[in-house]
Amino acid sequence: MIPEFTAAIALVGQAIKTAGSVVETTSDLKSKEAIAGLQNGVLDLQAKVYAAQAKYQELADAKREMEEKLRAFEKWDSEATRYKLTALAPGILVYELKADQSHGEPEHYICPHCFERKQKSILHRPSTSHSSYVCHECKFKAHPARISTPGFSVGIRRNRSLDGLI
Questions:
Q1: Which of 34, 39, 67, 153 is the least buried, fewest Cβ under 10 Å from its Cβ?
Q2: Same domain, yes or no, for 33 and 59?
Q3: 95 and 126 inside one domain
Q4: pTM of the entire structure?
Q5: Which domain holds residue 119?
Q6: Phi and psi dihedrals of 109, rounded to 5?
């Protein structure tokens, strides 16, 4: 489509030059007025062609952007199907890599907040006791009392100061 616009612009430019040279060689006033009107029409046409070209480019850019977003969504959907929502401990939900979807990756958990934002952020165990999980992206923290590898039982620590209130 762009080559057509370029060719149209070149033809309009050539028409303007031709009309200008005709005006210079013509001595009749009515002929000069008609040619000047033609020249103005060609200039108007040229402006419209430039505007159409700019609109076309804008639409092409928007299309390219939408295609990129669609590819990103499709990629995320493919990645998201590899995980399942699981309870790290009662009340603490995370996304766990399905065993049959590991493709050589080690077992791991994904932050539920980041997952909902279509981001893959692996939960890490930053302390030496490995008694908690943290997301370095959104700062989500899970503090179960007992931590083991994914697929094994996990407990939670109770706050004794709240036991009398519950």
A1: 153
A2: yes
A3: yes
A4: 0.53
A5: 81-163
A6: -115, 150
